[in-house]
Design a protein that fits this description.
Elements (H helix, E strand, L loop, with lengths): L5 E4 L2 E4 L10 H8 L3 H8 L7 H13 L3 E3 L11 E8 L4 H12 L1 H7 L1 E8 L4 H10 L6 E4 L5 H12 L4 E4 L10 E3 L3 H16 L4 E7 L5 H17 L3 E8 L4 H14 L3 E6 L5 H9 L7 E5 L3 H8 L5 E4 L2 H16 L14 E3 L6
Parallel strand pairs: 4-5, 4-6, 6-7, 7-8, 9-10, 9-11, 11-12, 12-13
Antiparallel strand pairs: 1-2, 2-3, 13-14
Length: 361
């Protein structure tokens, strides 16, 4: 006897193997996508650790086979797509470049969820420019997703736009004390504490200097990571002295120069934690100084650059949040709102992924 069973995945309903005789199941999806059933399970349940191209292939196969279908079926050809605008900072941060590419090219959202995404780039650390951009989409977008700065001008713009009826979701880094609908990202204090724990254990040292590079302390996420890192070190490894934090603005050249400065000024340097992005600048300086394999280097955002750093053992740990899951979760929040249900209903939290050379996905 077959028993109907339905799983809610971020507002998309997944039919189980036993729902109906003859309906394709997870095995058929795996075969069509040419992956294992375990990989299909990770993608459909948003557990991360799967390459973007592979995840897209799984979602495409599941959709084409009829394994995924909207919980409220509609004829997308007759319904106006939900327009979501993502606001990201300009710069050389490879993770954000990758996130921008996903936003612009992920056709799964358009085909299966009837969401049309656009991405606008704003000068990295200009609060006035960001606030102006937020306001400019108040009437033209159904939802605004923003990597916001912790600044009164930005906070006021968010409050103004949401008051006019356009929901705002903060991504990667939150904006405190504002009327945003939700935050999609990691617990950044926990991220900082995790980085400190790994730094201490990997270095095997109870004394020495640890360099800290922030993208910008204008980002609440970077503030919280720094606080978590410092708190853990003070509580557990008081002999490891944290030096910095200096702002590299997620820029390759600035991070390169800051790392050279650390190496010159601190002879007892045991490691560097790059709170933000553009870790390539740090790696370049370490290699130039002949320290590529002698210092512990922890950073953020798995991409082609950090993947190679891990393989070459210039970098020890990458702390990662899946950009594809971030985009899908954000869009699902706006879909939930459009359907009149709780914004976070059925949406799993993003998981913190700790990636090293030996477990590269």
């Amino acid at each position: 006897m077959f028993i109907d069973s339905i799983l809610d995945f971020g507002g998309i309903v997944i039919s189980t193997e036993k729902q109906r005789r003859g309906r394709p199941g997870i095995v058929e999806v795996a075969e069509a996508a040419q992956v294992s059933t375990a990989t299909v399970d990770r993608v459909l349940n948003n557990r991360g650790g799967v390459r973007e191209a592979t995840a897209k292939r799984v979602l495409s196969a599941a959709t084409e086979l009829g394994y995924l279908f909207d919980s409220l079926p509609v004829d997308n050809s007759r319904v106006k797509p939900l327009k979501v605008v993502f606001l990201l900072p300009t710069g050389t941060n490879p993770y954000l470049k990758h996130l921008e590419q996903i936003i612009r090219t992920d056709d799964h959202l358009q085909r299966s969820c009837n969401v049309r995404c656009d991405c606008k780039l704003v000068h990295g650390f200009d609060a006035g420019a960001l606030a102006k951009e937020i306001r400019s989409h108040a009437t033209s977008a159904d939802g605004i997703a923003v990597m916001g700065l912790e600044h009164p001008i930005v906070r006021e713009a968010v409050n103004e736009v949401t008051k006019r009826g356009t929901p705002v979701v903060t991504i990667i880094t939150d904006v405190s004390n504002c009327s945003r609908t939700a935050f999609v990202g990691l617990d950044n204090r926990a991220v900082g504490r995790t980085a400190a724990h790994l730094m201490a254990r990997f270095s095997g040292r109870n004394e020495g200097d640890v360099g800290l590079i922030a993208g910008s302390l204008s980002y609440l996420a970077h503030n919280e990571r720094e606080m978590g890192f410092l708190a853990y070190m003070q509580e557990n490894y008081p002999g490891l002295r944290v030096v910095g934090a200096r702002e590299g603005h997620d820029d390759f050249e600035e991070n390169y120069q800051l790392t050279l400065s650390f190496l010159k000024q601190h002879q007892n340097l045991v490691g560097i934690y790059n709170i933000g992005g553009s870790s390539g600048g740090v790696a370049a300086a370490l290699l130039e100084a002949g320290k590529g394999d002698s210092l512990v280097f922890i950073g953020h955002g798995l991409g082609e650059d950090t993947r190679m750093m891990l393989i070459e053992e210039t970098m020890d740990i990458v702390i990662h949040q899946d950009p594809l899951a971030l985009v899908h979760n954000t869009c699902q929040i706006f879909l939930n709102l459009s359907k009149g249900i709780a914004p976070l209903g059925g949406i799993p939290k993003l998981s913190m992924q700790i990636i090293c050379r030996e477990n590269l996905p």
